[in-house]
Design goal:
Order of helices and strands: HHEEEEEEEEHHHEHHEEH
Number of helices: 8
Shape: globular
CATH architecture of the largest domain: Sandwich
Radius of gyration: 18 Å
Structural class: alpha+beta
Helix content: 40-55%
Strand order of the largest sheet: 1-8-3-6
Largest sheet: 4 strands, antiparallel
Number of domains: 2
Distance between the termini: 34 Å
CATH class of the largest domain: Mainly Beta
Strand content: 15-25%
Amino acid sequence: MKIKNAGAKKLKTFDVQAFLDSTGVSRTIQTFEAKETIFCQGDVCKDVMYIQKGQVRLSVVSKAGKEAIVANLRPGDFVGEGGLAKQPIRIATATATTAVTLLVVGLKEMIRVLHEEHAFSDRFIAYIVERNIRIEEDLIDQLFNSSEKRLARTLLLLARYGNDDRPQFILPKISQEKLAEMIGTTRSRVNFFMNKFKSLGFIHNHGGLHVNDSLLSVVLHD
């Protein structure tokens, strides 16, 4: 049990940024302003990106032109890793929701590093597993929870609740329209619940949107 805990702690604290900076990995740094497109659905998969700063939204557009938000990624997340599984083209569009700084590693270089650097590959695999779990939780959330619970959970996720290394309880600016898209409801419903959360003291708007951990009670309430 002690060995397992020690290994988990070591994996949790592995610094991907420091590793990429110190081991001679061939990479470039790219910056994007808010609302800029990083890559488009249908582009060739040629690299993997590590989010150093800012937030990135992944979205998919159907043949009928309907857009769905797939994920909202944050510093410490990877984006564009589908090429590692021989995905030939991007299946989603990545857009900067804030100013973003990315470390960009070509596919061949990324594969080499994953094979040769075990600490890095362990951390990358852990990230992929964590992301899959998050996607499954999102699907369950959409299928079984009310829009009020979905909104509360989304705000907590954006605030990185439960992430001990990088908690963030003041959110970057995000419109009610975007929140409505993310949870699959209307703007009017989001507005109603946001006002409710404010009246209960779960959130407030002084100097940015502050999310209090007391909002968790909405998610846990049956």
